[in-house]
Amino acid sequence: MGVGDDAAVLRPTLGRDVVVTCDTLIEGRHFDLRYMSAVDVGYRAMVVNVSDVAAMGGEPVWAVVALELRDAIDEAFVETMYDGVLEASRAYGFAVVGGNVVGGVTRLGIAVTMGGEVDAGKAWRRAGAKVGDGVYVTGVLGGAALGLRALRVGSDGGEADSAATWIARYRRPTARLVEARALARAGCVTACIDVSDGLAQDLGHLADASGVGLVVQARDIPLAPGYDKGAERFFDDPWTAALSSGDDYELAFTSRAVPPVGTRIGDVVAGSGVSMIDRYAAPIRLPHRAGFDHGSDPR
């Protein structure tokens, strides 16, 4: 069933729970066509939803795609964007089972609803972290933010290799489905969220949902290749890209035991909120808006 179909019949697997997520990417807020191709937009729109499913410990199974097209978008652009949608579906093993197309809007938008499956009663939630758990993150952080800045202002010859990696990470994020599978097999995750809006903000959601505090040692956060040089060039504060910027789509989770994947960056403690500690054991002061704000003016 293709993007023009508006209904599908789905049958969940016996003994499995269904998990569902929905994300919308809007031109000018979530992507800029000066820095991203049509195929990249389609691919990225799907991967951010796969990341949400992975953060619940699930396997993506199906997706429905709705496109909102401004007048200047032609059929060739849509077909190319849909190439990215289908590329992601092959890479992560889900089917695109339906969707819708509307025109007459002022900005291009792509909305995805994705369903996945997880063993009954085993879905991870943001709630569940307990005092004494460790705080972990997969992969590295800060690369996507550095990539977007490199696209906007350019990069010099001394950082060309790192900049190419940062830009690829921004344009083509990786959903940590392989890591989620390993964690699910280990049965050690107590709470989980994907890092889409910035580590500090997303960990704050996890802390609030679990009713605990989190203490994060910034020195232990795994950083993107060439991070220090990029952060110095593009940001006023060295921690902005890693702590307050989004689009990395790593998994941040708590665990009662040493997990098979991930880097330990802190501890779950009694209290509330997230405390970030620098290498000198001093608190890091985060900006008031420490993370992506979906309701703010993107300019």
Describe this structure in words.
With 299 residues, the chain is of the alpha+beta class. The chain has two domains: 16-119, 2-Layer Sandwich (60s Ribosomal Protein L30, Chain: A), CATH 3.30.1330.10; 134-277, Phosphoribosyl-aminoimidazole Synthetase, Chain A, domain 2. The chain has eight helices and ten strands. The strands form two sheets. The protein has a six-stranded mixed beta sheet with strand order 6-8-5-9-7-10, with helices on both faces.
Main attributes of the structure:
60s Ribosomal Protein L30, Chain: A; Phosphoribosyl-aminoimidazole Synthetase, Chain A, domain 2; four-stranded mixed beta sheet; 31% helix; disordered C terminus
Q: Secondary structure elements and their pairing?
A:
Elements: E1 16-26, H1 38-54, E2 59-69, H2 75-92, E3 95-103, E4 109-119, E5 134-137, H3 143-153, H4 160-171, H5 177-186, E6 189-194, H6 199-210, E7 213-217, H7 227-234, H8 240-244, E8 251-255, E9 263-269, E10 273-277
Parallel strand pairs: 2-3, 7-10
Antiparallel strand pairs: 1-4, 2-4, 5-8, 5-9, 6-8, 7-9
Question: CATH architecture of the largest domain, please?
Answer: Alpha-Beta Complex
Question: What is the CATH third-level topology name of the largest domain?
Answer: Phosphoribosyl-aminoimidazole Synthetase, Chain A, domain 2
Separate helix tally: 8
For the biggest sheet, the summary is: 6 strands, mixed
What is the spatial order of strands in the main beta sheet?
A: 6-8-5-9-7-10
Rg (CA only)? 19 Å
By DSSP, the count of extended strands is 10
The run of helices and strands is EHEHEEEHHHEHEHHEEE
Instruction: Outline the low-pLDDT stretches.
Output: 294-299
SS content category: alpha+beta
Distance between the termini: 38 Å
Looking at CATH, the homologous superfamily of the largest domain is PurM-like C-terminal domain
Tell me, what is the CATH class of the largest domain? Alpha Beta
- The tally of domains stands at 2
Helix fraction, binned, reads 25-40%
Strand content: 15-25%
Mean residue pLDDT:
92
Shape: globular
